[in-house]
Amino acid sequence: MVATKRARRIFVLVLTLALTLAMYALVHADSSTADAAPAEAPAASEGASNTIDTTNKDGAITDDPQNGTAGNTVTTGSATDVTTGGATEVTTGGATEVTTGSAIRHSSGSGSSTRKQFVDVPKASYYYDAVYWALDKNITEGTDATHFSPMSGVKRADFVLFLYRHAGSPKVSGTMPFTDVPANAYYHDAVLWAYQKGITEGTSETTFSPLKTVTRAQAVTFLYRMAGEPEITAENSFSDVDEDAYYFEAVLWAIKNGITEGTSKTTFSPDNTCNRAQAITFIYRDLK
Fold it and tell me: What is the span of the domain harbouring residue 264?
């Protein structure tokens, strides 16, 4: 009888010990054998310059538009679906679909992409291809995240900036001859480069008038000078382009090379403001 009770106690103790060891093993299991969930990409803080690096994360990647403010960079690896909010630069690996918000630069690997879209650039417009070519080439960023403002006049500063960016934004040095171009202006290097390349002579010996809108005559003249002012033999069909005008050869060159067709069969409208759509189309037709 005593022996039976002792045996039962031993059995209970052994069973209790076995259960305790089993529970301990479950709680302290080696993490390498666990089915771990993928780490969440770090959120971008508002106003900061952050990098969301999801290189090793597969699946869907989302940069929250509320947090994806300007200055952020999103880099994806083999994600199949990438959506970014306000990131300024997006680099994808093998993504099959990419939708960017206000990204300025987007480089894709083997995937297709949906690039930044301007709501005021209709697909049927004559300047559609020119605008998105310029966007892809980092020649223009638009007037804000969703607008290009095609009908707005382009400033002289912005036109030479477009040309400067197309040239690769080379480093410049030397003295700025124009007193109305501050050293800290976003267009300073572009204007100095254009002056040194003989693309512009300014509106006087000491002024460039950067904030004035560029005229159609000035725009084609900048492009003509950038091309090296080649000799041109062509018939002038425009009644408003005098052969003594400084832009005479530039206009004929632009017509012959398909850069512009004029505002009608007999007018070029040299003194009219060159709007952003016209400006970027001239550059596209000349430099693409």
Answer: 128-287
